Each structure stands twice: as C-alpha cells, then as structure tokens.
Amino acid sequence: MTGINRRMMLAGAAAGATAAMLPGAKPARAALPLQGKQNPGWYRYKVGDYEVTVVTDGAGTFPLPDKFVVNASKDQVAAELAKHHLDPAKITVPFTPIVINTGSKLVLIDTGYGEEAAKKPNATTGQVTANLKAAGIDPANIDIVIISHFHGDHVNGLLNAEKKLAYPNAEVMVPAVEWKYWTDDGEMSRAPEGRMQGLFKSNRAIFDALNRKVTPYEWNKEVIPGLTAIGTPGHTPGHTSYVLASGNGKVFIQSDVTNVPFLFVSNPGWHAGYDQDGDLAEATRRKTYDMIVAEKLPVQGFHYPFPGLGHLEKAGDGYRLVPMPWNPVI
Amino acid sequence: MTGINRRMMLAGAAAGATAAMLPGAKPARAALPLQGKQNPGWYRYKVGDYEVTVVTDGAGTFPLPDKFVVNASKDQVAAELAKHHLDPAKITVPFTPIVINTGSKLVLIDTGYGEEAAKKPNATTGQVTANLKAAGIDPANIDIVIISHFHGDHVNGLLNAEKKLAYPNAEVMVPAVEWKYWTDDGEMSRAPEGRMQGLFKSNRAIFDALNRKVTPYEWNKEVIPGLTAIGTPGHTPGHTSYVLASGNGKVFIQSDVTNVPFLFVSNPGWHAGYDQDGDLAEATRRKTYDMIVAEKLPVQGFHYPFPGLGHLEKAGDGYRLVPMPWNPVI
Predict the structure, then answer these.
(1) ipTM passes above 0.95
(2) In A, which residues are within 8 Å of B326 by CB distance?
(3) Deepest of A232, B59, B114, B309, by most Cβ within 10 A of its Cβ?
(4) Which run of H or of E encompasses A86?
(5) Which domains are delineated in chain A?
C-alpha cells in the first residue's frame, strides 16, 4: 500500500487557508520577509578553452496576439502553448545574449533591449548590464560586440540609457549583408510603412549614434578566431548564426533561426510575424535544424528560455528542444 | 538560397586553431581573465502567496556503475543517457533542496549533503549554505527544517562543518514512519551489512547530535499550513512527498519518487540501487506520476536538474519531464 491517493492530493490543494497553528510554532512572522527578487540571470559554461557567459536581458510577456504566427490561427497557437504547459492566453519571449571570453578577446553577441528598456515602469527587460555586472563583467571590458541582425532586441542595447555607447571600448561587428540592407536608401524607400519603416529609422538612429563606425563581417568566415558566421537569412536579409569551436568543444549559436521554441521548434513550418521573409526563414530553419540534429550539436538560442542551451531532436513533423542540465560548477 | 551548408559548419568546427589575428585587434589578452565561476544556484518562484527559493547543493558526477539501475544492464543505461544527449560513461546526480517562505514561517525541505561535503577536495556538493546566503537567506533565519527521508543527501546538512546544528533556530520535522523505522533497534539489527548498516549508523549519529529533538509528522496531514505530507514509500519506508498549495498556486514536491529524470522518468519500471524496496518504489512512482499528469500539477524534484521545476507528460511507456521556463523576474 502506498500512502498516496488522489483525494488527499486534492484535499492538500485546498487546505492552505484553513490550517491551524502548529504546536511548537513561535513567531507569527517568518524570521525573514518575502524577498521578491530573482537570481541575476547569468550562467557560465566552457566550449573548449573558451568561456561562455549567458546573460539574460529578461523576457517580455504580452497577451497572445491574433497573428503572432502568420500562417496559423490564434486557436492553434493557444493550443500549442497549452500543450507545452504554458498559459494559452499569453506569450513570454526571453532575450538571451551571450559573452564569449576567448582568453584574448571578451566578445558580446547581441545586446538585448538595453538600459532604456529597464527604465520603463514594471520593466521585465533591459537586464543585460545588471546581469553582466553580477557575472563579474564590466561593460567597459567588452572588446567586441558582434550583432547577429538588426532587430531592436539585438541592437538597442548598443546604447545606454543616456544614448551613449554602452560598450565604450568595443569594436562593433555586423553582418555585411545586414549592414548593406539597412543602410541602403533604396531598400528603405521601398519598405512598407509601419514596423519596417520604424526599424529602418531606429537602426539608423542607433548606428548614427556610433558614427556608423562598424566592422562588417562576411558569412562562412571567422568573425573572431573560433567563431564562424553562418548565413541564416529569412528572419532578416542578413540574419546570421555562428558555430563556436574551441578544442573538442562546439556549439551552434542559432540567433533567431526560431523564435520561442515551444511554438517554432515544434512547428518549423510556422512563420513568426517577426520573420521578414517567412518562406526563406522556414527553409533556413529546416535546413539548419536537420544539420544540427545530424551533427548532434548543442544549440544556444536567443529566444530559448534562460540559460538557452540545449540539444535538438526530431519529434513528429518538427523538432524538440531538450535543455541541457544546469551545471552547478564549471 | 540560404548561406548555410554542412561543409561550412564542419569547417567552422575545426578552424579555431588556425585563425589569424583580425585587423583592428588590439590587446593580446581579453580585458578580463576567464572567470571560472558559476552563478550561485538559487531560483525563486511564487506559489500563491508563498515564495519558494530553490537552492542547489550541487551535483555529484561519477563513472556509470555496473548496477546503477538494479533491473537494467549497464549498456541499457548508457544507451538511455546517450538518448538524452548525455555522456554515456558517467552519471551526474543533482541535489536540490527548497526553502518555502509562507510569510509566517521560513521552511527548508531537505538539507543536501551540507558543509562537510564542501570541504572535500574538488567538491561539487555541499553548496546549500553558500547558495542560501547568495539568495539572501541566513541559515539562522530558518524556522523549520522538514526532512523527506533519511538518506545522506537529505539529512547530512542538518549539521555544519563543525558537526553542530546548521540551522540553530529551526524545529526539525521528520516523517513519523521514517523516524520509527530508523530508530528501531530491531530494524537495525535485521538490516544487511554495508550500505544499510552504514545508513542506520550515520542517521543515528546525526539525530544524536540533535539530542533526537525532532517533531514527527503524519502522512495525509499538513506539516505546516499549506504543505500536506503525502506518503510515497518504497525509496525508503517513510519516504514522503508534499503538495504545496496557496491561493491558486499548487506544486507537487516529489522528493525522490524518481532519481535523475533522464533515466527514471523515462523508465518508471527501472529500479535505482538507492530504492530500498524497488517494487514498492515503482508502484508509488507510477501511481504518483499518473496522478500528477492527470492533475497537470507542476513538480519540484530533488534530483531534477536545477532549478528542478517542471511538468510531466506521458511519453511511450513512461513519462517526460518538461522543465518550466526560467522566469527572469518573480
């Protein structure tokens, strides 16, 4: 006989309110008040001789939009959220930059929304600077910032709350294809009103604040020693992923090949509203994921839940993300 | 055309060693040396009005023993590890106590190995005290320590490195069934030599250091308001799980209903060497997990990877653990 039964579990669920004080109970309050504070979101792992520090910028939560997925109904998306044990009425999107210390360079890949976002009331993003500091990293120590593509959650943090350089000593490296696209006046003039025009404008404001002082980098070449840029276009024209390799270590840094895994890893055919060219993004996604599965590479995902490191496996018509166990030592 | 191809990814993998210095590269060393330090392992979430703080004691890694699973071959276990993207030659077992702040009591469930373990060379366990402090919790603030069962990873930390009370102001509450079993001289005399005799002796040493001053608690009753003890025997005779409930929040604290999920959640019929009564432990496991799946309860697992919170779903002949996304705010 086991002592457990369903009635007791349900009873347990309702009992909190009616409980009497226990014998031996002394203070009416806990010795410590509720803390209400989360652990600073950073996590460290080795890739060969390199040290990767994941630093979350936080996560944004919002009511499920009608067309979060362009080619699926809101009901289908809600059902998929529920299937993943999540609230079907809202979406939470995490933002997860990483720092690579190669021993000779301290390199940040993507910036998060940055300090400006942290100033908003009830802010849940803009945590990168605080989390870097918690991890022992001063932004002034960053030698290079590498940008994967020109969306706000990846570039806005190039500037601090005073609209000055957040990484004052860093060289800023950008995908050559992405740079060409967003600085091309013809592309801007042809871009639709609304979100796309807004992106052109905000990108230009950011890079003007840097005096357009950037180093474009090419696909299929090393951006820094050990970090090879892989063109994964569709999400944006110059969207870039990376293979980080050192010694026997290797990890695929996917950037936004998928947005949140609980929708788009399971359903690689779904197109996020954020994907500029949905068909190309899907082709890239399937090709990239098939390769990652075949190579059994660990994957670091910008929109995966912190710390964003896992493995992919085929599951039904899509894939499954298996988060890597947290390592309490490094 | 996407820019990615397999040859490039493999090339990227090998390129680290041969890379030349980049134009624009200045210092030969990063502005910051490798840090080599992991984030203190604590994580906080709300259950209704209650605040739960998960504090990892670390994780132990050891070569895969021949009989880690009593009723499966070493090859089968190694294959299962590989299937979960883990090294098939070794096992990593995490240890994950939690603190519950009810607003009127600060309660620790299980202690981890404690400070004694942290003193060993290259220690990877015994981190609870350090992680409590990182989370803003002084061990002297703990009002109650609740023990789920009498194995070293759950009780050794009752004592600090000086073999004194690690939680000097805490009432220690233990399952009545477990207390009766381990303090019964007849049970001890009948226990097999080796591990079981060792457990009897070390448990008695620990509780003698406490002058046997404990409060036994009963199954199917509240241990503290909102926390109901659920008998889940088999792993030990008095092994106990809990339902924590406050407001609309509810979580099932499974203790050791399974050891590591990547073996025993997938294969509920596998018996860990640590299970004192393998058949009863299996019956408990299946009954408990079927109920958790039916009730869609979140589960907190002592041997789940940090932070140890997830949902269970049926998968094939067993179950699958889906870790809950890390919440960067609380």
Answers:
(1) no
(2) 41, 56, 94, 305-307
(3) A232
(4) none
(5) 44-323 (3.60.15.10)
CB contact under 8 A, B38 and A41: no
Residues 6+ apart with CB under 8 A from A218: A176, A229
Alpha carbons B138 and B136: distance in angstroms, whole number: 7
Cα separation, B148 vs B167, in Å, equals 17
3-state helix, strand, coil split of chain A in percent (to 5) is: 30, 25, 45
Minimum CA–CA partner of B303 in chain A: A325
Q: Does B243 touch chain A (CB under 8 A)?
A: yes
Tell me which residue in A19, A103, A169 faces B34 most closely, judged by beta carbons: A103
B121 shares contact with chain A (CB less than 8 Å): no
Nearest to B10 by CA among A299, A296, A243: A243
pTM score = 0.93
* Residue A61 forms contact with B (CB below 8 Å): no
State the Cα–Cα distance between residues B95 and A252, nearest whole angstrom.
29
Q: How far is A35 from chain B (nearest CA, A)?
A: 8
Ordered per-residue pLDDT tens for chain A, 330 residues: 344 555 555 444 444 433 444 444 454 567 789 999 999 999 999 999 999 999 999 999 999 999 999 999 999 999 999 999 999 999 999 999 999 999 999 999 999 999 999 999 999 999 999 999 999 999 999 999 999 999 999 999 999 999 999 999 999 999 999 999 999 999 999 999 999 999 999 999 999 999 999 999 999 999 999 999 999 999 999 999 999 999 999 999 999 999 999 999 999 999 999 999 999 999 999 999 999 999 999 999 999 999 999 999 999 999 999 999 999 999
Any B CB within 8 A of A40 CB: yes
Residues of A in contact with B309 (CB under 8 A): none
Q: Do A222 and B31 touch (CB under 8 A)?
A: no
Taking each helix axis as running N to C, give the angle between helix A278-295 and helix B6-14, from 0 to 180 degrees, rounded to the nearest 10.
50
Quickly list DSSP for B10-25: HHHHHGGGGPPPPTT-
Compute, in degrees rounded to 10, the torsion defined by CA atoms B251, B252, B255, B257. Answer: -150
Using a CB–CB cutoff of 8 Å, tell me whether B14 touches chain A. Answer: yes
With a CB cutoff of 8 Å and minimum separation 6, the contacts of B43 are: A38, A39, B53, B54, B306, B307, B309, B326
Residues of B in contact with A8 (CB under 8 A): 220, 228, 230
In A64-154 the beta strands, taken as DSSP E runs, fall at 90-95, 98-101, 106-109, 144-146
- DSSP-based three-state secondary structure for B246: strand
Residue A27 in tokens: 């203070």
| Structure token pair of residue B232 | 């889940």
